[in-house]
Amino acid sequence: MNHPRQAGQYVADQERAHWHDNVIWFMREKRDQAVKVIPEWEELRELGSQIKGHTLSRLDDYLERFESQAKRLGVQIHWALDAEEHNQIVAGILQAAGARKVVKSKSMLTEECHLNQFLQERNIQVTDTDLGERIVQLRQEAPSHIITPAIHIKHEEVAELFHEHFGTDLSASDPDQLVAVARDALRRTFIEADAAITGVNFAVAETGGFVVCTNEGNVDMGTGLPRLHIACMGIEKVIPRIKDLGVFLRLLARSATGQPITVYTSHFHGPAAGGELHLVIVDNGRSELLQKPKFNKSLNCIRCGACMNTCPVYRRSGGHSYGYTIPGPIGSVLGPSRNMKEFSSLPYASSLCGSCTAVCPVKIDLHHQLLEWRKEIVSAGVLPWTKRFAMKVASLVLRNTWLYCTSGRIFRMMLRRLPRVLVYHRLNLWGRQRDFPRIPDTSFREWYAQRNHEQQK
Amino acid sequence: MKRVGLFIPCYVDQLYPQVGVAVLELLKRFDVVAEFPAAQTCCGQPMANTGCDNEAQPLAEKFLQVFQDYDHVVCPSGSCVAMVRHHYDAYLSGRPGFDQLKAKTFEVCEYLTDVLKIETVHGKFPHRVGLHQSCHGLRELGLASSSEMVTQSFSKVQNLLQGLTGIELVELSRTDECCGFGGTFAVNEEAVSCMMGNDRIRDHLDAGAEVLTGVDMSCLMHLEGLIRRQKKNLRVMHVAEILIAGERAGR
Predict the structure, then answer these.
(1) Residue A176 belongs to some domain of the structure
(2) Which helix (H) or strand (E) holds B130?
(3) What is the mean predicted confidence (pLDDT) over B8-30?
(4) Are the CB atoms for B146 and A28 separated by under 8 Å?
(5) Does the beta-carbon distance from B225 to A434 stay under 8 Å?
(6) Could you tell me if A336 and A403 lie in one domain?
(7) What ipTM describes this predicted complex?
(8) What range defines the domain where residue A302 resides?
(9) Residue B57's closest chain A neighbor by CA?
């Protein structure tokens, strides 16, 4: 995985990269409008951050409390150590029930575990019912954004896709027409489904209930008919009390899409009459992350995507350039915690502008964590030796004032005297699109020394 | 009389001496005579931001040694000041004089506003100016309110500039988007970095700016590099250069 290379390819199509930047910036603007009308927004962020911090400090207690409360409601709880176990459990439940057709609402956890592929290999047909996820599923792609999975695809491209799969008119690229096509196709899938899989946004320890937020109502559509509902959640999704939910629902919807609240906030308190409700609670590296004091605040994440929308790098390089299930700043923090070597370019895919930290509704210090990851990468010896070597040389030069001054003088002399082709060559990445400033005859320190000398005369 | 040390970042020293001169003169207008301690080199930010702590550490130590005896340290770069104030803890925590160093190191506009209590600079600068909010000055030093936060809107730099007669601060469509410099990011992620820079330049040009300014010469070096290559008609000046030019013209 090499972010600069992928990003370079995306940026090479300037028209698309600008389009992507503007589409995502629009979401950031909507978020701004929605939060600026709440005078207590910064307090709300602080509250959200503190509730998460408190919960994570006693996560085992809250998970056990949630488990016992959920069991009282008739929910069957399963614990999965990793992605493999999660997939096995889900497949096992489906196979025991003889389910062949499954409708799934958006869940980044099941993306993280690559559940679809696992089930399809076992002859279980999974249909993603969130429109964006359905589009990327049909294209056999991964989501490029955690809230708007198909944000990287233009209407016209969706029309082509639907034409191919549903035989619709190629010219039907109007969003309303496209939604109508998808709705028509999905309605039949909902009716035929044997089981529903959903994610979980918040699990309430106090009540044993959980909440899933959607804008399309596909969670309710999916869980309404089949008698089997399997919900999958990471261990960090638990919150202590029902009254904490209000804090997070406000933070989530406003940060994600600029809505006061998501269109559907579906609460589940046990199975429907005659049905089964299974909840798979997954660790998959989270408890390990919890033990890293520098990075465990990333478990605060409520998956709103605001850090992606604000990130000037994400907006221009596209979600797929990150090569990880979760892109953008939060993905660049979570990816290395999963596999530092594989994702070592992600913490460097940031100018450290800090906008992500300022926008995060649960106050994850994202840009500081990116910096911390860089330190981890360097001390593990994963940074390419050329970069480490350059820093070593620079540090040696800068430690010695005389050496620094002399190098500076030589550097300036060379820039002034060398022919342009020798300055702006292939290896000069700075100079590919940028000129050096007009090189001054003297440095500041030379000017200062000379001036002092003259004044003393 | 306070002893004020002038901290001139390495690349400003070598490539933009006129910015150092402007700061020195600007401070003099407000009766502050700053000294430039010649032993200084670089604060170590490029190494620190790459994650190379071992390489940054000796530079942080050198910095403390060079500047510890001054009452105030003033610098024309927000990110270098942020380095000292927010990132030196990893290297100097517990060292004698370090807590004081953090508290007495200022970006120049911050120094004028918060220490010298100057509300604005009087003078004349009849130009349309685009103010680029450098990220570290904005979000780490708090030189202005950032667009993500729901707080009272303010800008220390804007306040200083607004006293100049004839200046028109243009309205940008994205008030504080990063220019894409980001230190080694500028070469590591060259394609994205340059696209970010070009987008910023476009925003300033669309808003009708004749001059693009900011508190961080590093951002400006990156933007100026793109502007020079494309021969765009946009002048780049550090805030201190505008303030002193305006002050001179106003006299």
Answers:
(1) no
(2) strand B128-132
(3) 97
(4) no
(5) yes
(6) no
(7) 0.97
(8) 293-383
(9) A395
**Residue A407: pLDDT band by 50, 70, 90 thresholds?**
very high
pLDDT in tens, B91-142: 999 999 999 999 999 999 999 999 999 999 999 999 999 999 999 999 999 9
CB contact under 8 A, A353 and B140: no
State whether A351 and A424 are in the same domain: no
Does the structure show a pLDDT above 90 at A457?
no
**A373 and A404 inside one domain:** no
Contacts of A449 in chain B (CB under 8 A): 38
Interchain CB distance below 8 Å, B182 and A351: yes
pLDDT of res. B250? 85
* pLDDT exceeds cutoff 90 at A91: yes
Sequence-distant (6+) residues with CB within 8 A of A234 are: A109, A281, A282, A283, A284, A286
CATH code, domain carrying A329? 1.10.1060.10
Quick one: A221 and A349 in the same domain? Answer: no
Q: What is the pLDDT of residues A200-236, one digit of tens each?
A: 999 999 999 999 999 999 999 999 999 999 999 999 9
Overall number of domains in chain A: 3
Structural domain contains residue A379: yes
CB pairs under 8 A between A and B: 218
**Record: contact B150-A376, CB cut-off 8 A:** no
CB-count burial class (<10 Å; 0-12, 13-18, 19+) for A298? buried
Domains along the sequence of chain B with CATH: 4-115 (no CATH), 123-249 (3.40.50)
Of all residues in chain B, the one with the smallest CA distance to A25 is B174
- Among A225, A260, A284, give the residue marking a domain's end: A284
Pair (A203, A122) in one structural domain: yes
Please report, for the domain that includes residue A224, its CATH number: 3.40.50.10420
Whether pLDDT at A172 is above 90: no
Residues 6+ apart with CB under 8 A from A437: B15, B16, B221, B224, B225, B228
Cβ separation A444–B40 shorter than 8 A: no
Query: Are residues B55 and A350, on separate chains, in Cβ contact within 8 Å?
Result: no
Are A367 and A226 within one domain?
Answer: no
What is the mean predicted confidence (pLDDT) over A102-115? 96
Q: Which residue of B has its CA nearest to A396?
A: B55
Give the chain A residue nearest B55 (alpha carbons).
A395
Interface test with B, best of A413, A448, A451, A453 (most B CBs within 10 A): A448
- State whether B52 and A353 contact (CB < 8 Å): no
Q: Which of 326-365 (A) contact B at CB < 8 A?
A: 347-355, 357-359
In a domain, A273, yes or no: yes
Q: Is A222 contained in some domain?
A: yes
For position A448, what pLDDT does the model report?
A: 97
Of A284, A306, A339, which residue sits at a domain end? A284
Query: A103 and A231 share a domain?
Result: yes
Give the strand order in the sheet containing B72-75. B34-35, B4-6, B72-75, B105-107
**Does residue A208 share a domain with residue A129?**
yes
